[in-house]
Amino acid sequence: MTYQGVLRKMETEFSNPIQYYLVFENDFINMNQLLDKSIDIQFVKHQCLSCGLDKPIYRQGFCKSCFFDIPQAADWIMRPELSTAHLDKEDRDLEYEKKVQLQPHIVYLANSSNVKVGVTRKSQVPTRWIDQGAHEAIEIVEVPNRYLAGITEVALKDHVGDKTNWRTMLKNDIKDENLVEWRERLKSYIPEEAKNYFIESNTETNIEFPVHKYPKKPKSLNIEKVQSYQGTLVGVKGQYLIFEDDTVFNIRANEGLVVAISVF
Ligand SMILES: [Zn+2]
Question: Out of the domains of life, which is the source (predicted)?
Fold first, then answer.
C-alpha cells in the first residue's frame, strides 16, 4: 500500500496511548497501526503549504517568499509577546491577527525533557503538549489574548526553561516533576496584568505515547538529502516517528515536503 501527499504535522487524538494520524489530501494513515511494520519513505518534491509551488521550504512548511509575506508566519507566532491585535494595530493582516490573537490563551508548564513554560491557544490544549512530546503538563493562567500570554511567558522564562531537548525527550530520559508545586513557586513572577487570570485549582495531565522501543542514540533523518529511507517503525512521540535503527523523523520539521510512504 502506498500513500502520497504533502507532510503536515500529524493530527492527534488524546487517548491512552495517543493516536496519531498522518493526513493527506485523499487519505489518512493511523500511525499506531504501523507500529512494528516496515515502512518506506520517498522524497517526491516540495509543496509550499501556502502557495503550493514546488519551491524549497524555508521555515514552517512555507517557501521563503510566503514566509516573509503571509500572516500565518509573522513574528508574533513564535514570539507571542509581539502581538498587537488587542491594540487594533496591524502587523501583516489585522483581520487574521484579531481572529487568532483575541481568543483565550493558556500559559502552561510542560515536561518533555525538563520543565518548560509555553503558550498556546486554549483550543490547542492538549494538542500542543502532545506535539512537544510532554509526558506531563499543567496550565498556569488562562488569559483573553495572546499578548497577555506572551508577556507572562517572558516573565516566567527567567525562572524556568523554555526549550525542549529533543534527544532527551526521544530517549525518554525523563523524570517526573511535581508541576503543581512548580506552578505555586512561579505564581509570584506572573506580571501584574495577568495575575488575576491565575487558574486556582488545577491538576497535571499525563500523556502516554505509543512507543515500543526508545532510541539510545537518536539520529535525525534528512529525507531530502537521502531521498529514500526504509525502516521498522517502533514508536511515535511528539511529532517524531521512531525507527528500530534509532533513526528519528521529525514530521513537523519536514512540513511542505511531498513524500510517498509504502507499508510492507
Ligand atoms: Zn509559498
Answer: Bacteria
Q: Which residues contact 87 (CB under 8 A, 6 or more apart)?
A: none
Task: Please say whether the beta carbons of 135 and 214 come within 8 A.
Answer: no
pLDDT digits (tens, 9 = 90+) for 114-151: 999 999 999 999 999 999 999 999 999 999 999 999 99
Only one residue has cell 510512504, namely: 261
Single pTM value for the model: 0.96
Three-class DSSP category at 125: coil
- Expressed in angstroms and rounded, the spacing between residue 253 Cα and the centre of ligand 1 is 16
Question: What helix, strand, coil percent values describe the chain, rounded to 5?
Answer: 30, 30, 40
Q: Please give the distance, rounded to the nearest whole angstrom, from the Cα atom of residue 134 to the centre of ligand 1.
A: 31
Q: Which three cell numbers stand for residue 168?
A: 532527551
Q: What is the pLDDT of residues 102-117, one digit of tens each?
A: 999 999 999 999 999 9
Say how many Å lie between the CA of residue 6 and the centre of ligand 1: 13
State the distance from the centre of ligand 1 to the C-alpha of 230, rounded, in angstroms: 29
Q: How far is the CA of 255 from the centre of ligand 1 (A)?
A: 12
Query: What are the structural domain ranges in the chain?
Result: 2-64+211-263, 74-206
Distance 201 CA to ligand 1 centre (A): 44
Distance between CA 219 and CA 167 in Å, rounded?
9
